[in-house]
Amino acid sequence: MTTEQNFKNITIFMIGDSTMANKPLEQEVECGWGQKLPEFVKEGIVVDNHAKNGRSSKSFLGEGLWEPVYNAIQPGDWVIIQFGHNDQKADEERRTEPFTTYADNLRFYVNQTREKGGNPILCTSIVRGKFEDGVLQDTHGDYPKAAIQVAEEMNVPLLDLQKTTEKLVKELGSDNLKKFYVPHDVTHLSPWGATQVAQMACEEIKRLNIGLAEYLK
């Protein structure tokens, strides 16, 4: 098989929550950053976005959403993994703890991806634009730290989107959040915000100089 054929057969799988998920095109209000990623990859590269609203690292697995991804992974494919927003929820179906159950779930996705010959990438959650008295609040607690720890422990590339989106949201300030997020919401992205995050993710991939970088525009 030629290099060109290999190139065209590469798939980038995405698993995560609503901040990454595809939204109806006719909506034109909310958009997940995974929906914008195809704009930044070279022709012939498939982005297969399985992220789904409201899912945590636990419920994505519990609902059987991981199984079709696992079955489809071919050697050389990439899997971008981003959970955390809903791992904080109180309900038993979604709740995890950062350094135990959440970290264990991330390890599971990494190991299963590698088992199929795929390449895992971990992401921290994008920042919530919650300001109090003009100061951006930390709403994710230890979940980003846990993702970073797992990435270091397992030698997995990490895209620290918490850090990069935090910088942008601070620059925008509390009065301009509607540009980045949907109206009356400081979690879900506008189409412009989703494009910014997809671009940030690609910039991080290039900065880390991992193999996926060659498939980006």
Structure description:
It is a single chain. β3, α5 and β4 (119-123) form a beta-alpha-beta unit. The protein has 217 residues and is an alpha/beta fold. The chain has a single domain (3-215), classed as SGNH hydrolase (Rossmann fold), CATH 3.40.50. The two termini are 23 Å apart. It has nine helices and seven strands. Residues 1-5 have low confidence and may be disordered. α5 crosses α6 (143-154). The strands form two sheets. Strands 2-1-3-4-7 form a five-stranded parallel sheet. A two-stranded antiparallel sheet has the order 5-6.
Key traits:
217 residues; 5-stranded parallel beta sheet; Rossmann fold; two-stranded antiparallel ribbon; 9 helices; alpha/beta
Short description:
The protein has 217 residues and is an alpha/beta fold. The chain is built from nine helices and seven strands, in the order αβαβααβαβββαβααα. Strands 2-1-3-4-7 form a five-stranded parallel β-sheet. Strands 5-6 form a two-stranded antiparallel ribbon.
